[in-house]
Protein 1
Amino acid sequence: MQLELLVAAILLITLVGILSTIGVRLTRSAKDSKNYQIALHELANQMEILQGMTPNERAIALRELRLSTAVSRALNDCQISAEEIADRFGRRLRLQIAWPNSVSLPPVELVGWVDTQEVGQ
Amino acid sequence: MRGSLRIKRNNSIQRNGSMLVELMGVMTAGTALLFLAVGMIHQSFHLSKRTQGRADLQATLGRLASVWRSDAHRAIRLEVVSDTEAQWFDSLGEKITYRFAGNEVIRELSVRSSKGAEINQKEHFLLGEGFLVRFELTDKPARGSLVVAEKTKVIDPIDGEWMPIRLSVESNIGSWNRFGEVSR
């Protein structure tokens, strides 16, 4: 009887360990997912602002680019960066939010075209 | 009689049953393990429910952001009636009202038909308890903002209390209207 109890206890302790790890990972995953959504919407907001600007205004705005206050508080220590790309596919902006405190999380990126010619013009 | 006594004397440590203290120990340990297992099962159900709730909320917020942007791009004007109510007006005479009602955001589309009848269409974005929604209008350029924040206050060492945001959408008003002007 004692042997059975010992086996059951070992199994249960193993299970507790596995479930605790899953719980911690789940919580972290939920937090990452929430931050990803906030970051993605922030990039979309910034992209809209930049797309609505003239090239000169945009050049100035890109130099002074930073996260909005509420988002920078929600995403601690995150950095936003922008890159203007011009090639045969057109002129576009690549915005990126990187997570300096996390090695495993890839940065969130959003690419949008700017100075596009409307059809019919 | 003499033989059985010998046997008894030789096998004095052999017994068929368990001692009461052993039984009690096993029962105590078994009960503790059982409670632990039940607690874990309960916790796993709770976690599963919470995860589902978070996934639902994220889907709702994503849908709300998408619809808000779309309405902003089609609109010509935004009127912020109060912090919790805003109205979009588009060039076709449609009015779209966003209203925060406790635990959900209601989007109500009002269209006047050719015969003069008003048609209302409602869409509900259920957020659940513990959220605040705020609508804002900014000038130069004209932009409409929708912010969903958690009611939980966080103490910031620099700026004091603030509510962590869950969604912040800022959209240029009427950015799709210029396409309409080109085609006319």
Protein 2
Amino acid sequence: MMDHDEADYSALIVQIAEKRDRNAFATLFRHFAPRIKGFALKSAPDPAMADELVQDTMLAVWRAAQTYDPARASATTWIFTICRNKRIDLFRRRNRPEADPPEEGDWVMQPTQENSAEISAAFRRTRALMNELPSEQADVLRMSFLEDKPHRAIAAETGLPLGTVKSRIRLALATLRQGLEQ
Amino acid sequence: MSGQHHPSLEIIGDYAAGSLPEPVALALAVHMSSCSACRMAVQKLEVIGGVVLDELPPAAMDTEAELDRALSSLDEAKSAESPSEPSDLPHALLRRVPGDLAKLPWRRVARGVAEFAIDNYEAGYRAKLLRIQSGASVPRHTHRGEEYTVVIAGAFYDSDVVYNKGDFAEADPTVRHQPIATDGGVCYCLAVTNAPLKLLGPIGRLIDPLLRRRAEH
């Protein structure tokens, strides 16, 4: 699990960036590919398409490794964002609108040991906060991150009124945001 | 610089999750291009996705065969750096709008107000650019659904509240308003709706059915 390996996965991405290290890529692939496939199957039960999402995501990891900043995101979170974007590209056949990269001195942090430790701590804190959420909130929050579905579709799937889905997600997000600021 | 008016937590969360409808995501991307606070907020919530990915049980797959397939593609995988021309517009917008704002085929909708439709999207979403001349006002209206507006250049005010470049406004059927461009120059906005507007006022009521019919085409 994450606690032991997250820093190692970050280091592997850095190795890919610096040395184009195919062994590092293989280690990363063996860990993440089955999870990415599981992620893909949550939004569409199509194993061939899920394998494509694995390929698209992992090739993007190889290509974009130089842009990975261990002080800004944990390896798992970074790979989630790539996987999420590739899923949008693949399933909706559209590109996801992205914000422009920050200007010099705007929000760029220097990658230091301290920042990387903070990133790991934020990951653990987020997970702990998610585990403390009432299950009715945690369930819809997980669905919204896993299944590429708007609130309306989650409401249809769960049989909950749309307003209930929205308010549960809002409450969960507010709790997490508040908890992460402490 | 961060603006004064930000999108709701719900929108930030849906963007982090990847479930926000594309035109609303476009409005948010334009906002975040000048708002580091919201970029940071998205980053914090993306960790939820990391946790969810981390806790997923690995799916059954022929990992070694798929790894070989990936390894054989690595050499072709060039880095995706594309040279971009300098522009005042956020890139997310440049990908969807041809050329610079002044040269777009604007269509006049009211005195001093013109629009350019960007695209029609799933689930009835529409995205359009608005050009409001200095001091001109959008006809007084309310909404049949949600409306998301982000200022691209210039500024407008709406019931004494000023929206500057990058500011994000959300409106719904409870809101009746008449945004007015400030005297500071032409105001350009991106407006995203998921249902046609409902014009108010005597002339508005007269032409509203016509606009509606056109919007439904």
